Structure formats: structure tokens, C-alpha cells
Amino acid sequence: MRAITVRQPWAWAIVFGQKDVENRSRNIAGRYRGPVAIHAGLRDDDAVLDHENPMAGLIFGSCPGALEDDHNRHHCDWCQRTEPQRFAHRGHIIGVVDLVGAHESRLDGCGVGKGTARLGELIPLCSEWAMPWDYHLVLANPRPMPEPIPCRGRLGLWTVPDDIAARIEATS
């Protein structure tokens, strides 16, 4: 079983929030296609949790407690009070997805999918979660773990230790 480590809240968004693209500066997947465990890293993406990132609306916008202030920042204390699983797990495998593709986005976009506004421009990207100028790991079929499994993360696309892979497969 392969895995990628993703900072919170992006790990949650992949497994529970319909995030179907993971943006990376290089193609960490190579030719691999298949199941990938999502490991929630120990660190948060503080820019998103501070609601300053333009992508915050995609995470917090689906939340019933999300509000926008006068500066278009999203706040969602409700989520952290009533749905702590969104952000609580760090250093755990929280789900499995299928890696179904990987491609590079250039200055003019991916050349795949629908047009998505980013930074005031209309750039043809494969997903509303995709960022221009990155490699896009295209993800599908998220399957949350019934109970998150503690595990040490690594950089890139890594191989899950056999004992942990057996626990993941036992829940699938």
C-alpha cells in the first residue's frame, strides 16, 4: 500500500470534503495508479486555518457554521466545536483514495476539465481544488478509516509498513 502525507485541513478535505486533486510542486506519483492511504501530517497548513488562503472557502464553505467577514475570510468555529474529527487527527492515516491520474498544470492550465477562476483569471483546470503551475494528483473514491491509524509520515509517495497496511486492508 502506498501513502502520501498531507497537512491538515487538506487531509480532511481529501477524505471527507470532496477534494479531488492534491497539488504538488513535482510529480511524486510517477506512473503509479491505485490505492493511496491519506496520512494527516503533524503540522497544519496555518494559512488555511487562519482563513487567509483563497482555498479556505472550499473547505469551510460547505460547513453550516461558516461565515464570511468583510474581508472574505471564512470562519468556522462551529466545525471545530461540533466536528473535531475534521482537524483533530495528526500523525494518523485517516482514509484511502484511488490515485487515478497525475499531470502538470502549465501557465495556461491543465488542458483538461472545466475552466476554474484562480487569481482573477479564467484558467482551464481539472478541478476547483487545482492550482495553476503545480502537478495535480487526481484522486477518486475516498474511503474514510473507521478509526484513524497512528503512523509516521514521510515525504513523497511512500510505502506503508506491512503491519499498518494489513490494518488498512482489514477495514476495506
β content, as a range?
Answer: 35-45%
Intertermini distance: 12 Å
Report the radius of gyration as a whole number of Å: 16 Å
Poorly predicted segments: 69-75, 78-82
Helix vs. strand class: alpha+beta
Shape: globular
Q: Percent of residues in helical segments?
A: 10-25%
Count of runs of 4 or more consecutive helical residues: 6
Secondary-structure element series = EHEEHHEEHHEEEEEH
Strand tally is 10
> What is the number of domains?
1
Mean pLDDT: 77
Query: Strand count, sense and closure of the main sheet?
Result: 6 strands, mixed
Strand order of the largest sheet: 2-9-6-3-1-10
Summarize the structure.
The chain is of the alpha+beta class. Helices cover 20% and strands 38% of the residues.
Question: Would you kindly provide a written description of the structure presented here, covering whatever features stand out?
Answer:
Helices cover about 20% and strands about 40% of the residues. The protein is built from six helices and ten strands, in the order E-H-E-E-H-H-E-E-H-H-E-E-E-E-E-H. Strand 7 (about 115-120) and strand 8 (about 120-125) form a beta hairpin. The protein starts with a strand and ends with a helix. The chain has one domain. The chain is globular and about 45 Å long. It has about 170 residues and is of the alpha+beta class. The strands form three sheets. A six-stranded mixed β-sheet has the order 2-9-6-3-1-10. Strands 4-5 form a two-stranded antiparallel sheet.
Layout of SSEs?
Layout lengths: L1 E7 L1 H6 L5 E4 L9 E11 L1 H4 L6 H5 L6 E2 L5 E2 L1 H6 L2 H4 L3 E13 L10 E4 L2 E4 L10 E16 L6 E3 L2 H10 L1
Parallel strand pairs: 1-3
Antiparallel strand pairs: 1-10, 2-9, 3-6, 4-5, 6-9, 7-8
